[in-house]
Amino acid sequence: MFLRHREQLLTGGTALWFNPPGDLAWREFPAPHGCEWQTQDEMARRTLADSGLNVSLTPVPVTDQKLNSIVLSLPREKARLRLLADALADCLAPEGVLYLAGELRAGGRSAPAQLTHRFESIQKIDSARHCVLYAVRKPRASAGFRLADQLQTWTLPCAGTDALIIHSYPGVFADGSLDPGTALLLEQLDKVMRGAGGSALDLGCGAGVLGASILRRFPQWSMDMADSDALAVSASQATLERNQLEARVFASDGLNSVTDRYDLIISNPPFHAGHRERQDLGAGVFDGVGNFLKPRGQLVLVANRHLPWRRWMDSTFGGHTLLASNNRYHVLGSRY
After folding, report:
1. pLDDT band at 275 (very low <50, low <70, confident <90, very high)
2. Of 5, 18, 249, 310, which sits 20 to 30 A from 59 (CA to CA)?
């Protein structure tokens, strides 16, 4: 859909493409170097950078000027689209155009409802191959976008100690409440966090629930936290600051930006790319995981029962331990 309209997307002066797809054929667009390229996703940033495009990672759009043209790929989460509508409306010039494209079954039909609070005109200009392209115009006046105003807070009871205050942003996993998979994993911490302490990595940290819970209950452990989503990295940092906890938080496409070795890597791994379930995606996050575990180091994760994690852990580690299970999830562990 973007390629069908390549001649009009980035024209008219200042331009920004926010969250370009990692497989975007960016060289086929007119004057691509006259456009700012920004993304929330470290996986997409790495892929595009490897192809030669200069893309910056940022939790929300950043610009010091009003833009004549903005291109946005439809995010999976409606709440994230609404947040981006708030941010991009402040970036767009009064006569500028925001182009939004995405798959119909991934939220394309309902996308206009997430934009009307910040834009007066939303026009569908093309539909093909189960995708839709909108031209969004006339940003409504506002008091100005601030990411801090989007912060959402909820309380997480923490066994044997004070409750945690979790900070999150719209579209960050899991936004607003504890998801049942992570809840099952948290119940197993006493089994996992044995010994005098060590180093841990919360991979795919989201809003920081796992990492913050470990630090609160087992302060003798040191913690790193990583996520491919820049907005999640910001949320985890806010969670740690609110609870006066210390950890290193950074963006990483799987283990690509990880440099240390750990006694424990713990995760509630992803298995969606957009709206599609990808059974290979979670395993890809852990490519070469043995290189990041100390001798006798442990990988512990929670996963939906229908996913092939037990088979993957057996082939990778030569076996696994079933730490907990219910009708939806497994908590699995393997030692290196």
Report:
1. very low
2. 5
